[in-house]
Design brief:
With about 90 residues, the chain is mainly alpha-helical. The chain is built from 5 helices and no strands. Helix 3 packs across helix 5 (about 70-75) and helix 4 packs across helix 5 (about 70-75). It is elongated, with a radius of gyration of 20 Å. The two termini are about 35 Å apart.
Length: about 90
């Protein structure tokens, strides 16, 4: 088995032990809560570039992540096209 597979199995086993124990889960596991806004924000060129830079992605990789073409990402960043922010949440 791969190292990643071993880590996944170990994590699942740890989670199962936490569930079976009488201890509250928040004492055994890290529990995070995230709030997701109902409507996505509009992104201008600098904001799109900032997100891409934050995750150290090239335009090509960022485009694949968003199911867009690299030319489209470039056009968004240069302000030649508006980004369809609503489609990024679906």
């Amino acid at each position: 088995m791969s190292k990643i597979g071993e880590k996944l199995i170990a994590a699942f086993e740890e989670g199962l032990q936490a569930i079976k124990s009488a201890d509250p889960l928040d004492e055994r596991l890290t529990i995070r809560h995230y709030a997701v806004p109902d409507e996505p924000s509009e992104y201008d060129g600098p904001a799109i570039r900032a997100v891409r830079d934050r995750y150290a992605m090239s335009q090509g990789l960022f485009a694949k992540f968003l199911c867009a073409s690299p030319g489209t990402v470039q056009a968004w960043e240069q302000g030649r096209r508006r980004s369809p922010a609503a489609s990024w949440t679906r």
